[in-house]
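Page 47, continued from p. 46.
Same chain as before, 177 aa.
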Amino acid sequence: MARANGLPRRAVPGKSVVAAPSAGAAGDAATIGPLADYIGFHLRMAQNASFQAFARRVGQTELSPGTFAVLTLIRHNPGISQTALSRADGRDKSSLTPALNALERRGLILRQRLPTNRRTYALSLTPAGERVLAGLTRHAEAHDRSLDRIVGAAEKPRLIRLLRRIAAELNDDVGDS
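Result:
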């Protein structure tokens, strides 16, 4: 019996079964138990599936949705600082810095120290970064059209509102009292 979210579910509540992505043998299915009712679990599953589909479309694992987001944010905010970029991208600086190091090594971004604050870098795309971003944008647009087909045009604005609400409220959440 399938649930509205598309995951198969046994008749016993809380005992959902999810087949492995390349399920072949009968033993490839796993009972997910109470995870079936956790929004966070399904957000992660959807994100993983979306990232894997994007990687298959692009064909290069180092050109991930995260790389696309970072390059897009830099492109639309030339001179952005790493701190502002980390806030805009929703990553902490410790995970963003290695990504920026890799982009800089590949010649896709420039880091320039600000003359007014030598501890702060201004980020911009190189011509190579602009070219890579143009290709990634084509892939991202095609990927988004696939997601549009899955979600439906009428539901897309609602889904985006819900995801933004989750992100905003969890970013403001200081934990249960």
